[in-house]
Amino acid sequence: MKELIKKYLLSPLAIALIGVIIAFTNFAHDTFRSANKDWFKDFNLDSEIHILGKIVADRFDIPITGNQNLFAFDSHEKTYDYDKFWKNRDRDKVAVYDDLFGGGKIVTMSPAEARQRIVMSGNYTSQFVLQGKIYSYLFNNLGITDIKIFYAINSLLLAVIIVLLSFLFWRAIDKPFAIIFYLSMVFSPWVVVFAKHLYWTTWAMYLPAVFGLLYYLEKRHPWRGWLWLALLFLSFTLRSLMLYEFISAVILFAGAIFFIDMFKVKPRYGRAESLVGFITICGLGVAGFLVALFIHAAQNWNGNGLIENLIGIYQEHVARRTYGGSTGIDTPIHLIDVFKRYMGWHSWPDTPMEQVTKLFYLSGGVLFRLLMITSILQSVYYFYKKNKYRWERASMLFIFMATGLSWMMLAKNHSFIHSNFVFILWYFGAVTILFYLFYKLFSDIAPVAIKKSDKKFGKKSWLKTINRP
To answer: Above 90 in pLDDT, residue 112?
Structure first.
């Protein structure tokens, strides 16, 4: 019986399948109540309208300048009123979703009726938003007219990618890190509310990390190393064609393992080779971003040429998200303001900082800060004691914290305003490494405590049951 259990129930394939099922059900339905019910239902609807608007415009042949994805839609009769959609985030009360999509009106409405009742109120030219075109094609050309199917597809793809990453981290780092990564992602309120979202297409954020880890594990293979690099570049390009948001975090997360390898006690490669691997992945990420940027500019959405469009994209969209634009707030935004906000020291009242480290109902921004302080003190202590793992663990803490912070700081104006979704950046390794280092601290201390306890109280000390060497 034990052999059968080991062979079938505990096989890697069985574990992966169970992992995907658990992740999918939570991403698609919030089965384990990881997130607030209303938050899960209504998360970031003002971004989702970009995708829904594209579907509506294509279905009824409503012109969109330069073939861009739609920003919003409105109606003379206020039947489909974007202002109402923007101000009222409760999906049950939003006519544009309930009537058009939830009630199936978009399927039965005639083009003539649609053109009479629906008026477009603007274009969304900030990004290419490839996923809008994909969903519109599936909806209007392939007849998949149930939006819930798109949600399910997004949830399933993310579940598969999280499981793949967990197995790859198991090989690249160790089993505890892989387990903590899986748990901290699957039961994270932030990841759960992002998972099914049509605009964010969260699975594409983490896809490059799969190929980055595969490249790390098979870099020296005669041909598979080149294959993973090619797919890595394509995944960066795909992500950038969907959205530019968080691109620095996506790139650093994909290359993080090579950075860590430079400081490992038992590295897979030499330090120089690992550095080249890290730079290669970052270079491919930048290249994929630039390819997407040129494709975006080549759409000629404002009637100008390629160069003029590139300049326009920078001035109208890049500058205002980073250092060159206005936030609409009277006081200037500084990097320290952004850092305080995402450490939970300077948040707007409706910012759910308490959700960042919620894992099996352990919640609170205070917990996040305590874990960070503990991890920093642990690193200082290891350097003081000249622990052999001091550089390895410090590098892990640095790169996974820097991954999320890179976008928060690079796009400081964008980040400061949009605290309703930028907290997801802590789930590009930061939350995982904080829990992992806490586990490592305990596993390092426990054997010492057991030894001292045995010496003082004898071999029957209860501490021996915790982590007996």
So the answer is: no
